[in-house]
Amino acid sequence: MIRTFSNEDRDETIDKMGEATYDLLVVGGGVTGAGIALDACIRGLKTLLVDQQDFASGASKNWSNLFHAEIQHMHHLEMKMYNDLFKQRLILKENAPHLIKQTELILPTYKTGLFTKSFRSKLLDRLTEMAFKEKRKHITKKELAKLEPALSLKHAKHASLYKEFLIDESRLAIDLLKESVKRGLDALNYMKVESFLYENDKISGALVVDQNKNEVHKVTAKHVVNASGTMVDSLRVQDRSLTNIVIDSVEDYFFTVPRDRMPVHHAMYIETEQHQLVSLVPYRQSIIVGHSVQKQNERTSNKELLDLLNRTFSEHPLEDDDIEASWVVKRPYPIDKKKKHHEYKRQEWIESPSGLLSVVCGQHTFYRSVAEQVVDRICKQLHHKRNCQTDTVTISGGYVGGLDDFLFYKKKRTEEGLQYGLTEYEANQLIDRYGSNIGQLYVRLRTFGKQAKMFGLSPAIFAELLYCIEEESILSPVDFLVQRTGYLYMDKALTMTVKEPIFRYMRDRLNWTEEQELRFREKLESEITQAYET
């Protein structure tokens, strides 16, 4: 099998990096950085991307982003901006259909609260009509009781039903990178930019530290893009180019509870006493409870959220032990300190006197649009006349014929998975995660399935681990359990069962030193502790 994106080839990529002069160095391996890299590679720019952690480990570490997530910050809505959002969403549905899950969103209407305000409800209706060419469906109290039997209707008046989509942002970042690597990108995780290099006061590259071996390497590049998310300003400080435009962040708090403890069948929003919105998303075998705040002191505690859920749902009262995993995602956004109330923006790119381009994209649906603007700018400076083509470029895993054809593709591939001994749930989960790359997992399942027991793993998990080592550049067990699969958050029992066999296999296969083994052990235990201690 040809390996296109593996850390087993890391030394070769590092050697190549030291010898080359790149047109573009991208710092940051989330959705924004990966989108810029793909656009640049398609236009023929020699591009390197580095990230000081694993790919998709920052703001892109989001496993269930709702289309209507923006209603949590309703006062920031701008209709012109959302026209572009809907256009980008349609493109994404065609280019990466395996990462878009269609569902329904229920908004219960109560006697008091956000959704009794005509402005907000009409605005949401308008957004939905713009996005999906259809209006909301009004649901009576009786119909709501049939759709969500566990929902307490003591204060509810009725509800609205909207078409909704979930986006797997972690997988989007990984698949963008895989497609970019196929098109010539050099990409390395665990590479920290220690300092920038300059020539005649213009940025000309960077010194990067290999976090895996603690070695320093020089990178020469004509242009540098800083797409490091919440770390954008720290690199701007290095560049001595910090201005009145600074980066703040929204903190998204999540925890999961088992579906059998909270029988919710639709995505929905409920409201706290402080009129803050809490999202509930059925995902795999869990319900993801999400809560976003701009200031940490505004956060509603897990105990308060459990009390809210117990008041909202009349059956199955939840207790602390029902929270299986919790995590935090920080999403950056730029603010202008000179403007009143620190004007809130969803996207921004800032060019410093040295030529450093710093990019922030708080809503990842805009990633392609932001990438187009940034690469247009770079191509103009390089006198490189090639236009953006990413609106028609299928992303790795998306070669199934678009969203409408994905359901047929999934059914066919699920039947194939059953022949290899997978359950229907296992096959569906793998196809949703890897899309048209599922054939490569099936090859590994067929070839190495019998060896899985030797390493204490099921054939499905072993095939997935092999694929992620050989095709998705994982370096540690956390990379596999969090950024590539989400198992650590979505399946606690499975994670606790497979973490040791995965650790041992990766240790032996990747020939870790004692120092690396200790570091990866500490990292794994730290992630587990943070996720499972509520």
From TrEMBL:
Segments forming domain Alpha-glycerophosphate oxidase C-terminal = 388-516
- Enzyme class label: oxidoreductase
Q: Which residues form a coiled coil?
A: none
Per the record's keyword annotation, is Repeat included, yes or no? Answer: no
Q: Which cofactor does it need?
A: FAD
Q: Which UniProt keywords apply?
A: FAD, Flavoprotein, Glycerol metabolism, Oxidoreductase
InterPro entries in the record: DAO_C, DAO_C_sf, FAD-dep_OxRdtase, FAD/NAD-bd_sf, G3P_DH_FAD-dep
Q: Where does this protein act, in terms of pathway?
A: Polyol metabolism; glycerol degradation via glycerol kinase pathway; glycerone phosphate from sn-glycerol 3-phosphate (aerobic route): step 1/1
Keyword presence, Oxidoreductase = yes
| Catalytic activity field | a quinone + sn-glycerol 3-phosphate = dihydroxyacetone phosphate + a quinol
Q: Which residues form the FAD dependent oxidoreductase domain?
A: 23-336
Q: What is its EC number?
A: 1.1.5.3
Family per UniProt? Belongs to the FAD-dependent glycerol-3-phosphate dehydrogenase family.
- Name listed for the protein in its UniProt record: Glycerol-3-phosphate dehydrogenase
**Organism annotation:** Shouchella miscanthi
